[in-house]
Amino acid sequence: MDGTNPAPACAHCSNLAVHACSVCNNAPAYEIPSKNTYYCSTQCQKDDWLTHKAVCKTLKTRKMLFRAGELLQEIFYVYREQVFDKVFVKVEKRDGKMLLHQGEYPPLSKMSNALDLLFPFDPSVVSDPLDKASILTYMACGDAVAWMHDLVKYVLPDLCSKFKEMRVMIQNRERHLVMVTEGEEHSSDQPHCILKVKLKNSDEWYIVDLAGAQYGFFEPIVPAVMYEKSYVRSHIDSHGAEYFGQGKEVLIQFSQMPVLAGNSCKLNHVISEYLMKGVEDWEAEHASTIQGLLGLKEKEFQERRAGLIANVEKWVSSCVKVVKQQGEVIRAKMAAGAIDDKDLVAGGIAIGMDDLKGGGLNAEDVEAFVKAFETRMSDFQ
């Protein structure tokens, strides 16, 4: 029973109720708090189904959307930690700011390929999980929209009927992250990339913000009206061109440019595909789907969710481990004067079976991994 209403009435006969509808119970709020539906018996619940059906299905879908948002956000955090591209040696909070002190980066002359743009995330600089989330997502909203696109496209279509990518300017940030380089502070007020979605069979619109932690916005799913009223200072008009998938297309195009940022996009494009591989591998192992996972009871959902995230992390970390090892091969070739254009373009990816097994994958997984990775890297040669 709901502690705020210890004696609710049956929705069908108005007698004293004894249980709530388990399907839509405790659904997240939209613009106003959701009300639980109670019954005095299973017969009354059956008799009331035609009346309750529409509301129940909407609330169930809403619950699943919020779960999906939490899952996608956590996967994005795992991904960002594996492909982290910044060097922070100290984090301090002062005058309402979170100051991120940059360390030294290798000189450009020593950056032989895209693999040199990955820097291990140093967990010692923060102890608070929320601080860690803020740092992982700092200036990474474009990555969230682009490199999580395929996974979002796989998870959300059963729950949402419309999708739109948006760029907005943020207001009322609850955290203010500031980069500090050689003692000088550098504030950022860049456009923030988010996704707007419409819940299926309803008029409810939501914002999906997987990188909002950099502003102190830790909820990945927020009703659109609430989000825009509280956090959006202005919209950046793209003249109707903000279609679902645009962010990924733009960064893929940028990856073809012969600059370090282009190489970073190229590397993310390849590695991010193993987010889906981790999900597909988990689904095959458990004879289940993400959609089925989202509909489980809370305890079972949390248990299986942890396993899914661990599996995704396994695949991504194995991929990153291998490409970093190949970066060392490139450096050795450069030092010996034995490097060619193919090495530079492909980033030196020559994946070995033992390398991937060391990353935690079994022999069958390794074979599939090598074949798929070599195919993807050939697209960039």
Strand arrangement within the widest β-sheet reads: 10-9-8-5-11
For the residues shown, what is the average pLDDT? 84
Shape: elongated
β-strand percent reads 5-15%
Class computed from helices, strands and strand pairing? alpha+beta
- The count of DSSP E runs of length 2 or more, i.e. the number of strands, is 11
Helical residue percent band: 40-55%
Low-confidence stretches: 341-359, 372-381
Give the end-to-end Cα distance, rounded to a whole number of Å. 62 Å
Overall radius of gyration: 24 Å
- The total domain count is 3
Characterize the main sheet: 5 strands, antiparallel
Order of helices and strands: EEHHEEHHHEEEEEEHEHHHHHHH
Number of helices in the DSSP assignment: 13
**Quaternary structure annotation:** single chain
Protein name: MYND-type domain-containing protein
Keywords: Metal-binding, Zinc, Zinc-finger
Organism: Lachnellula suecica
GO molecular function: zinc ion binding
Structure description:
There is one protein chain. The chain has 3 domains: 1-47, no CATH class; 63-244, no CATH class; 260-378, no CATH class. It has helices spanning 42-47, 49-82, 129-136, 141-147, 149-155, 224-231, 246-254, 260-286, 290-294, 298-336, 341-346, 353-358, 363-378, and strands at residues 19-20, 38-39, 88-94, 97-102, 160-170, 177-181, 184-187, 192-199, 205-208, 221-223, 232-235. Residues 341-359 and 372-381 have low confidence and may be disordered. With 381 residues, the chain is an alpha+beta fold. The termini are far apart. It is elongated. Strands 10-9-8-5-11 form a 5-stranded antiparallel β-sheet. It has a 4-stranded mixed β-sheet with strand order 3-4-6-7, with no helix packed on it. The protein is built from 13 helices and 11 strands.
